[in-house]
Design a protein that fits this description.
single chain, about 280 residues, alpha+beta, six-stranded antiparallel beta sheet, 6 helices, signal, DUF6689
Length: about 280
């Protein structure tokens, strides 16, 4: 009996040591088990372990160099304490999703001439979790190891589907966002405002003259919790930007990372802001 108890104790100690080491183990990224390229789209399917499936879709308005040799796409299971996620969360009220702890990386090779115009649309579809309108799972992205930001434009059944858009590339993940909706709206407006301010020198006066009063109207509506007026202003800003060309608002991102897709970044942040306004 003492020998058995000693063996059990040793096993328990060993198990505790292994569990303690798990959060520090570097997760292994895997390539999709199937991937297809056609026209302006990429479809990739992953199976991570026995539990986590993912169908990933990328779609571009206009793209050049869309070829397997130019694009690295991978996914990995991440631990809840992985600093690559935890240290990049925008708030302590944003957490990983235990039922789908999957981080996706889309990395165009910098020397291969990959570029796209306008927006890239991304969709996650998985059967690992099931859509619940009361649970705020959202699609987030992070560029160059920066803070994750919500880019969600749609969530729906089947079993869980999330869509978003971006003007550049890096990492994507589904996160649980428990922040107050008004806090999320204010944060998204701040990111939008920062994007416009940081790239103002690249915009002609005719564009800023059009956008500035709409931004003031949107800000006022958000501060006074006037959702209808905020949606009207958001729609007007989207329409104004969609009507521009690359000659007036820079609208190309390329893998060398030397130019800013101003139009794509602004539209991406407007679309996700509008999504949150509509769902509050």
């Amino acid at each position: 009996m003492k020998v058995m108890q000693g063996s059990i104790c040793r096993l328990l100690v060993l198990g505790t040591m292994i569990l303690g080491l798990l959060p520090t183990v570097q997760a292994q990224s895997v390539a999709p088990h199937t991937v297809s390229y056609s026209d302006n789209q990429v479809q990739a399917k992953f199976m991570l372990g026995q539990s986590f499936d993912l169908a990933l879709s990328l779609e571009f308005d206009q793209v050049v160099g869309l070829h397997p040799a130019n694009l690295d796409i991978s996914a990995e299971i991440v631990m809840p304490t992985d600093p690559r996620v935890v240290d990049r969360l925008p708030s302590s009220l944003v957490d990983g999703v235990a039922g789908f702890p999957v981080l996706v990386s889309v990395q165009p090779k910098s020397d291969k001439g990959f570029a796209f115009e306008g927006l890239a649309n991304i969709e996650f579809y998985t059967k690992a979790i099931h859509f619940d309108p009361t649970v705020p799972w959202r699609l987030f992205t992070s560029h160059d190891e920066g803070t994750f930001e919500d880019i969600t434009t749609l969530t729906s059944t089947g079993s869980y589907r999330a869509r978003g858009s971006t003007g550049r590339f890096s990492d994507f993940i589904i996160l649980l966002d428990s922040r107050d909706t008004n806090t999320i709206i204010e944060h998204k407006f701040a990111l939008l405002s920062d994007t416009l301010r940081d790239n103002r020198a690249m915009l002609p006066a005719a564009v800023t003259t059009l956008l500035d009063p709409l931004m003031l109207t949107l800000e006022s509506a958000i501060l006074t919790f006037d959702t209808d007026s905020a949606l009207t202003a958001s729609d007007a800003l989207i329409a104004a930007l969609e009507d521009t060309t690359g000659n007036t608002v820079p609208d190309v991102w390329r893998s060398s990372g030397d130019i800013v897709n101003v139009k794509g970044d602004l539209l991406s942040r407007l679309y996700t802001l509008r999504y949150t306004l509509r769902t509050q």
